[in-house]
Write a structure and sequence with these properties.
Two copies of one chain form a homodimer.
Chain A lengths: L5 H10 L4 E2 H12 L5 H13 L3 E3 L8 E4 L1 H26 L2
Helix pairs in contact in A: 1-2
Chain A binds a DNA duplex through helix 1, helix 2 and helix 3.
Chain lengths: 98, 98
DNA sequence: ATACGATGTATCGTATGGCGTAGTAGGAGG
DNA sequence: CCTCCTACTACGCCATACGATACATCGTAT
């Protein structure tokens, strides 16, 4: 059903902090996770997330185009984080027993 | 460089527990994460992970074809889990402040 | 004996996603 | 005025995800 990949999750993560425009999302994701999103990846993800109602475009004052996360986007992010959290805990416990 | 998607991570997670064959991986991933991997996804991932040296095929005694994780696979899994761990912590802290 | 459900692997097709490249353009500073 | 940072758009290749499909084997109950 709701299919979006890792870049989409990182965008939702960044917007969960507050509305941002594309370039600021890139900088935030890089700072928070060390992952560098290129323009193709970033704007492709933004388009898909808008189509799915997980984020919404805000009126652009200047040449920047800000986006905000929606309630559905927060729910999707929370669900994905819960799954990853289980994976991380299971994985780290399994890797620990060498 | 070494790029593999979420199914690949789940396979590595499953094999970090010990060698398993395909069907057993599906069952383990379902139990541990709630994610159901179809045959296409599973065997496609297995092929790619073998090509990248992250897992290795073991000699098959019966009709089962077991795989084991390699040292490189453990390292790749650990790296991915570390990134996800950061994302989960950042995200949950951001979602918490409503 | 046999039918059936569970186990187990493999392949094909394809829509989508990931991501690099290149191009456009405003603003700031030397 | 030239160049570097910011900021977005457009394009396109290729890998990936994943459903559909097929087929072999085992255990078990009837």
């Amino acid at each position: 059903m709701a299919r979006f990949g890792e870049p989409g999750v990182l965008v939702l993560l960044s917007l969960s902090d507050g509305a941002k425009h594309g370039y600021a999302i890139t900088a935030d994701v890089l700072e928070q996770t060390g992952v560098r999103l290129g323009p193709g990846t970033l704007y492709g993800s933004l388009t898909k997330l808008v189509e799915r109602g997980l984020i919404a475009a805000l009126p652009s004052d200047d040449r920047r185009r800000p986006y905000e996360i929606t309630a559905a986007g927060r729910a999707a992010l929370a669900a994905q984080l819960a799954t990853w959290s289980r994976v991380v805990q299971t994985g780290q416990s399994r890797l620990a027993q060498a």
